[in-house]
Amino acid sequence: MAELQVVVLAGGVGAARFLGGLVETKGNDSDITVISNTADDIRLFGLQVCPDLDSVMYGLGGVESSDRGWGRENETFNTLEELRAYKAEPEWFQLGDRDIATHLIRTQMLDAGYSLSQVTQALCKRWEIPATLIPMTNERVETHVVVDDPETDHVKAIHFQEWWVRYRASLPAREFLTIGADVAKPAPGVLGAIGSADVIILPPSNPVVSINPILNVPGIRQALRLANAPIVGVSPIIGGEVVRGMADKCLAAINVAATASGIAAYYGPRSGDGLLDAWIVDELDETSVKEISQLGIKTVATKTLMSEPGVSKKLAETVLELANQVTKAKDA
Amino acid sequence: MAELQVVVLAGGVGAARFLGGLVETKGNDSDITVISNTADDIRLFGLQVCPDLDSVMYGLGGVESSDRGWGRENETFNTLEELRAYKAEPEWFQLGDRDIATHLIRTQMLDAGYSLSQVTQALCKRWEIPATLIPMTNERVETHVVVDDPETDHVKAIHFQEWWVRYRASLPAREFLTIGADVAKPAPGVLGAIGSADVIILPPSNPVVSINPILNVPGIRQALRLANAPIVGVSPIIGGEVVRGMADKCLAAINVAATASGIAAYYGPRSGDGLLDAWIVDELDETSVKEISQLGIKTVATKTLMSEPGVSKKLAETVLELANQVTKAKDA
Asked: Is residue A105 less than 8 Å (CB to CB) from chain B?
């Protein structure tokens, strides 16, 4: 039997947890390609930091910090302590000592002329991750957030990381700009993976700052729309609340309700001009199933809180089963 | 009373220890300028590492590892462990996590266009060191060692650090090349400090790879020869042996005897075409005093093993006293 070709569009920790379940479910019977958001990448202290790529790499490598939700387990922060003692800017970002090795190698390779795709492949080699991890693009694309500067009250755009980490998303966002996306190209392998996929998954990542930047790279949204594979999404909302606490701030900025149905409508039905063939909502949001189904999106409710044991595997099974149903219905 | 203007040409740990004693002796009654060798600098893992500048900075900052002889005390090596797990080259160099913060800031500032002088000043600010630390030059100058490649037997030049750290100086050195020195300029402040000095000191650093590269920067040797101040050197030999074990390999390569008199003759008497007005040998090498004095270099023997408590302070006092005698004799 041919391997199932699975494509996952990924943000950070939510995607990493979902991928853990997907790998557990499929064993060696699938060929998983992860297309990672890179718009939250940032160069700090001279290091090129790629939070979402690393969340997936460390997550699938089994060395992520599950407490922190980013970076490595068994981590120390001695370099950071020294950077702060030197008063190096910015003072609001954290980097662990083990994690810094990844950024050093990445930065050195990028500066030597390797593409981010090549660097990612080189880094992943060590972790022997059971998936192909590729960046959405090799060009520099960064999410900036338009806010009222708390010091001057003037409108200005700040890097997403500054908004997210320094201000804990507390400054009202007027707008999210995916800087550089208009002239970016999908990284090698991105369009091919989408085109030959059997299933395409939008895991429970932040729709505005994790998934949307991927869709903003010219060619990717169109490739998804044209793909043969069904597109199945998982709602990042549980019982009307965002799981990790700040995605609602992003949704508010673009006037999208932070609800299972609000986000489903934001992605839109594939039968219209959107992306979703199917959508999974949390069991606590079961009341929204009917409303979402009426948009033309096949919707089911199940347990989605992946910090509970066994849930991510079960969730991945549900996604694949739902994809299978969509494919069969289309073929019928 | 005007402050005594002291200039010290510095290598790494030997110079740092001597400087500790000098500071202890002089308190606030002197203005110390340290001109540091930078020819053992190397870019590794994308980081600009300046071993001699850092040895002096950490030494005078009171945070050097006295056990190791390089890097920071209370150090961890987690980034390094990860770099090795990624099989990052080179595998023979060590960097501590705290130390990496220094290299990150330096590299970022250099890449942003600041000079090494400016970077060094910025880094030293934190440590409030009781001296002005300046690099010998802001240009890239590197000591390379000509050896027979142990794998191919062909002659090749390798970076000093590779020869020193990877091969523990065990490959016979055919020659030392100070690459880039011919077109380098002394860093701002170097010639001025030498010109206005009251005392100039060559501490017990490696003459071949620490002091000689400084002398090879065009203009520096001449400035020393023309300076009003007496030049006093301290022998790095104790009882006919090099203190830290490998400087003899460097001396052998240039056919200089690894003895107190051999090195004195290598620097040469100022009354000839050399540099030394005075020279301090270890008490164990007292028998060489007469021979060296006959070269026209005022020579005394005293305790020089600075790992013993109180010795570096006493040694600094002896150096300053000897300088004073030379000055008085000249004025008489």
From this structure: yes
**Secondary element (H or E) of residue A300:** strand A298-302
pTM, 2 dp: 0.94
Q: What is the pLDDT of residues A155-210, one digit of tens each?
A: 999 999 999 999 999 999 999 999 999 999 999 999 999 999 999 999 999 999 99
DSSP strand pairing (A278-282 vs A298-302): parallel
- Hey, how many other C-beta atoms are within 10 angstroms of the C-beta on A244? 14
User: A227-266 pLDDT, tens per residue?
Assistant: 999 999 999 999 988 886 688 889 998 999 999 999 999 9
Chain segment B27-72, per-residue pLDDT in tens? 667 899 999 999 999 999 999 999 999 999 999 999 999 888 889 9
Give the domain B63-130 fold.
Helicase, Ruva Protein; domain 3 (1.10.8)
CATH T-level assignment (fold) for domain B1-39+136-141+180-332:
Rossmann fold (3.40.50)
Chain B from 38 to 57: CB within 8 A of any A CB: 45-47
Alpha-carbon distance of A299 to A232, in angstroms, equals 9
Query: A10 is written with which tokens?
Result: 């990924």
Q: Is B121 on the interface with A (CB under 8 A)?
A: no
> DSSP assignment, residue A164?
I
d(CA A250, CA A70): 19
State CA A315 to chain mean position distance: 17
Question: Is the Cβ–Cβ distance between B99 and A86 less than 8 Å?
Answer: no
3-class secondary structure per residue, B4-41: EEEEEEECCHHHHHHHHHHHHHHCCCEEEEEEECCCCC
The tokens 């500066």 sit on which residue? A111
Neighbours of A208 (CB within 10 A): 22
Which one of A48, A86, A91 makes the best mutation probe of the B interface by having the most chain B beta carbons within 10 Å?
A: A86
Contacts 24+ apart (CB under 8 A), A291-300: A291/A261, A292/A260, A292/A261, A292/A264, A292/A265, A295/A264, A295/A265, A295/A268, A295/A269, A296/A269, A296/A270, A296/A271, A296/A272, A297/A264, A297/A269, A297/A270, A298/A322, A298/A325, A298/A326, A299/A264
- Return the structure tokens found at A78: 């001695």
**C-alpha span between B202 and B323 (Å, rounded):** 12
Are A211 and A234 spatial neighbours (Cβ–Cβ below 8 Å)?
A: no
- Tell me how far apart the alpha carbons of residues B198 and B134 are, in angstroms, rounded to a whole number: 18
Instruction: Please give the Cα distance from A246 to A316 (Å, whole number).
Output: 24
Q: For A126, which of B85, B108, B123 is closest by C-beta distance?
A: B85
Complex confidence, ipTM: 0.93
Extract the tokens encoding A192. 């091919």
Are B116 and B105 in contact by the 8 Å Cβ rule? The answer is: no
Can you give the residue ranges of every domain in chain A?
1-39+136-141+180-332, 63-130, 142-179
